[in-house]
Amino acid sequence: MRPHPLISKLGLGTAQFGLDGAAPAKGRPPEAEVREILAIAGRMGVTVLDTGAASMHGEAVLGAVMPRPAPFKITIKAARGDKGPDFVEQEARASLARLGLVRADAIMVQAASDLFTPYGKALWQRLLDLREAGLFERVGISAYASDDPAGLARRFGPDIVQAPASLLDQRLLVDGTLAAIRDMGVEVHLRSIFLNGLLFLPPDRAPSHLGAAAISRLSRARRLIAEGRSDPLQAALAFALSRQEATAVIVGAATAAEVNAVIAAAASPPPDLDWDDMALDDPQALDSRRWAAA
Question: Of 86, 117, 166, 194, which has the fewest Cβ atoms less than 10 A away?
Fold first, then answer.
């Protein structure tokens, strides 16, 4: 069975897998849940697995339950560079070992600001050396909108830039940043497409730091989605997956049921909605650093 073209554009982030070693809340061992999540994702044609800044325990669990051969392009985050490039390399090799991999698709700088510290040049060169040694196919940078992602792409020439963009946060799409990165031959991976679930919250449960204008805009977006006979999950996925700038769209899910819901929504006919009417322009609402990664 050929994978659905939009599902093959999906990537799965592991940040919500519950792999921190804590006792499971609902009694099911997290290893069993993660095994089922990965089996579903692999079977349905999800292409990217983004392990994020996973814990050692989390990487070991992923390595233990990963289908073999791994059906995903696996991305790991490099360690923060404040302990020097030798430490970054040591941690990258350890991550591969815990995941049971000889090589992975990509290693990502997890904070663009690391590249502008005294150790930044050496950090970037070490990641390029790891690519040259065959441990990773590609090297990338995870950036916020305020990091000037296009400038990072021009300066460092990464293979991938991971950046936030969503139905609610369209800044990097509207200003042409992501199109410019794509036109440099750099892959764009969208993240935070749910803006940490903000679109799913009723306006009366919106975070207190949002202003009245942002809450009003959020209420309008939810109303337009309902009037278009859609729902927030389907709308958010349809918007992100429709973007020609993006090669992959990274989504988070905590359970097998959530993965099934994401895949079903991604494969559904896209709703006929006016995306432009749904964007927020409140900097406080759109500051990803106020939220955990979606």
Answer: 86
Enter the DSSP assignment of 109. E
Q: pLDDT tens digits, residue range 137-166?
A: 999 999 999 999 999 999 999 999 999 999
CA distances from 136 to 1, 49, 92, 102 (A): 29, 14, 10, 9
* Whether the Cβ atoms of residue 37 and residue 256 lie closer than 8 Å to each other: yes
Please say whether the beta carbons of 75 and 109 come within 8 A.
no
Structure tokens at 151: 């400038």
For the entire predicted model, the pTM comes to 0.91
CA-CA distance, 276 to 294, in Å (whole number)? 21
R_g of the chain computed on alpha carbons:
19
Q: How many CA atoms lie within 13 A of 277 on its CB side?
A: 12
E strands, 130-228, in order:
136-142, 160-164, 187-191
Can you name the residues that pair with 249 across neighbouring β-strands? Answer: 10, 190
Quote the pLDDT of residue 81: 86
Specify which of 3-12, 20-29, 155-164 reaches the highest per-range mean pLDDT. Answer: 155-164
Structure tokens at 179: 């199109």
For residue 36, what pLDDT band results from cuts at 50, 70 and 90?
Answer: very high
C-alpha distance across the termini of the chain, in Å: 30
Domains along the chain?
7-197+234-275 (3.20.20.100)
161 near 261, Cβ under 8 Å?
Answer: no
Provide the pLDDT for residue 2. 63
Proportion of the chain in helix, strand, coil states, percent, rounded to 5: 50, 15, 35
